[in-house]
Structure prediction request, 226 residues.
Amino acid sequence: MSCVFCQIVKKEIDAAVVYTDEWVVAFKDIHPQASTHVLIVPKKHISTLNQLQDADAEIVGRMVLAAQKLAGEFGIAQDGYRLVMNCNSDGGQTVFHLHLHLLGGRRFHWPPG
Amino acid sequence: MSCVFCQIVKKEIDAAVVYTDEWVVAFKDIHPQASTHVLIVPKKHISTLNQLQDADAEIVGRMVLAAQKLAGEFGIAQDGYRLVMNCNSDGGQTVFHLHLHLLGGRRFHWPPG
Prediction:
């Protein structure tokens, strides 16, 4: 298995893990775009949003709920934050294991990139 | 009920609705930031990400699955797309009924705003 996020999930390589539960692992982005920038990844390998099945609805919901919990822990819940998922080249996806970006600690502009 | 997205869900006001199912309604953003820019909203009123309950995991997953289906229908699945949810002022949230932005048809930059 050469997927770097699967290796993080399996603790085969190091990451700054900040949260884990039954469904997801969350760790700090190594190229942060804001003072809080965390990636939430499902433990199950799903390469892109296009590969999601209906049965994965719970997993995706749990990714967002984990982001919400982390926003509270990082003290950005009330000021606000942005959640982003990128698919394929136009979206800017660079690692092909589904991941949700949690970004906070500054005001985000519109459009979102 | 003065929530504009609830009024769209109830068909009390018009919107360019492109999809509906048991959980969500999707319609075109009136200020599009890309050639495809659709908002996916839960039928249930949830004001921000901070108000999500664990029991809402299925709803949130279905929002993302609806976005995935729409990406296929709009022909942007392979080139790619970006999904965004904003919370409160730093995130840029302007309507206080949870919504997921599906954006596609161009290459998106990083950071996401």
In short: The two ends of chain A are 32 Å apart (CA to CA). DSSP finds three helices and five strands in chain A. The first strand of chain A starts at residue 17 and ends at 20. Residues 64 and 100 of chain A are 8 Å apart (CA to CA).
